[in-house]
Design brief:
By secondary structure, the chain is of the alpha+beta class. The chain folds into 3 domains: 14-142, GAF domain (Beta-Lactamase), CATH 3.30.450.40; 170-248, Signal transduction histidine kinase, dimerisation/phosphotransfer (DHp) domain (Helix Hairpins, Orthogonal Bundle); 257-399, Heat Shock Protein 90, CATH 3.30.565.10. The protein is 46% helix and 20% strand. The strands form 3 sheets. It has a 6-stranded antiparallel β-sheet. It has a 5-stranded mixed β-sheet with strand order 8-10-11-13-12. A hairpin with a 2-residue loop joins strand 10 and strand 11 (329-336). It starts with 13 loop residues before the first helix and ends with a strand.
Length: 400
């Protein structure tokens, strides 16, 4: 008894790719071994079956049938072709004594006496192929428990194939998302860098105009230009910091040095106070010793937290800034009054480009809190938020 396999000889054959997917299922060799053991048959296989092809996807051959993985049989010579049409199991114990198969061309062609072929149906209802076993000698393969075992094995193979397909799609989607994210971050970095030079020219021109005799109306326009230039500069810095953090594996900070932080914090508070005339900013700075940090980055962190409080807090309420040394930690907090932050929104606060709710308006890109959190992380610290009906407070804490 031996098979005469045909060879497809086709490169990039999608059916062979489907057949190869069976080989990636770890359980299949064990399934074929069990199929041989419970039936007593010497050859078991998982076959991909279409209208015109029969391909062995996985094989266990203990009888020298001669058909290995990737081998093909003329589909019309197989009983699997009939299984494909009926989607029902075909099984017989002794072909010579079976009135339906005693003179059938398949047992006569391949010298078979015992046979079982169970259809493998995918979850979408499509027919994949068969789980089959054959032998040149009679065996009791038609026992109900044997047939049911084959049915369960066929279902298991189908479920595992679906899982493999989902995993492959997920991995492909993840790779596409990673490529898109990297391209986006590179674009943002280039855009932010290229905007700096023309913005610097605009700011320099506005500074020169400010020194020349101008009417009150013109002075007001120049002041607006300078305010807009400073705001654009902050936005560009945020974009560049975001891109550096994403492309470089973290936000860069200068080597720490011990610095008196009151002047740094007061400068930031003064800048924002001048840009928000009429807003009450209450400060309480109690720093009795220097802090080891990158002072420019800590100033940027305060600027982002304070800017966030001024933008989202109650315009008629005060904003408070407190800084001090608590045990061995430097603690900086910014608080504002107004509506509390919903619990559902807190998980998104420190994510970049967080989406706005319908009707909300944002000044900036939504990067301020993200960058503040990255600065905290780079200093070995963290930012916590507490929000209720009385106030919303962001607290930065790091080793002093």
């Amino acid at each position: 008894m031996s098979a005469k396999p045909t060879s497809g000889g086709v490169q990039n054959d999608p059916l062979l790719d489907e057949a190869a997917a069976i080989a990636r299922i770890d359980a299949v060799p064990s399934i074929l071994e069990v199929c041989c053991r419970i039936t007593g048959m010497g050859y078991a296989a998982v076959a991909r079956v279409t209208e015109d092809r029969w391909i062995a996807c996985a094989v266990r051959d203990e009888i020298g049938f001669g058909l290995g993985v990737g081998g093909e049989l003329p589909v019309k010579t197989t009983l699997c072709d009939e299984v494909r049409d009926s989607r029902e199991v075909i099984v017989f114990d002794h072909a010579a004594e079976n009135p339906l198969y005693a003179d059938h061309h398949t047992p006569r062609t391949y010298g078979l006496q015992s046979y079982i072929s169970m259809p493998i149906i995918r979850s979408d209802g499509s027919f994949f192929g068969t789980l089959c076993a054959i032998d040149p000698n009679p065996h009791n393969a038609s026992k109900p428990e044997t047939v049911e075992t084959f049915r369960l094995f066929a279902q298991l193979i189908s479920v595992q194939m679906d899982a493999e397909d989902r995993l492959a799609r997920s991995e492909a989607a993840l790779l596409d998302e990673r490529d898109a994210a990297e391209l986006r971050d590179q674009f943002i970095a280039v855009l932010g860098h290229d905007l700096r030079n023309p913005l610097a020219a605009v700011q320099a021109g506005a500074a020169l105009l400010r020194k020349t005799p101008l009417s009150d109306q013109a002075l007001g326009i120049v002041d607006q230009m300078q305010d807009s230039g400073r705001r654009m500069s902050r936005l560009i810095n945020d974009v560049l910091d975001f891109a550096r953090g994403r492309l470089g594996g973290g936000l860069p900070v200068a080597p720490r040095r011990r610095v008196r932080m009151e002047p740094v914090l007061e400068q930031v508070i003064g800048e924002l106070r001048s840009g928000h005339a009429g807003r009450a900013i209450v400060t309480e700075l109690a720093l009795d010793r220097p802090v080891a940090c990158d002072p420019d980055r800590i100033g940027q962190l305060l600027s982002n937290l304070l800017g966030n409080a001024l933008s989202h807090g109650d315009p008629s309420g005060p904003v408070s800034v407190q800084a001090g040394i608590d045990d061995e930690d430097f603690v900086l907090s910014v608080a504002n009054t107004g509506a509390p932050i919903p619990d559902s929104a807190r998980a998104e606060l420190f994510k970049p480009f967080s989406r706005l709710k319908p009707g909300e308006v944002r000044e900036g890109l939504g990067l301020g809190l993200y960058i503040a959190s990255q600065i905290a992380l780079a200093h070995g610290g963290r930012i916590d938020v507490a929000s209720d009906e009385t106030e919303t407070r962001f607290t930065f804490r790091m080793p002093a």
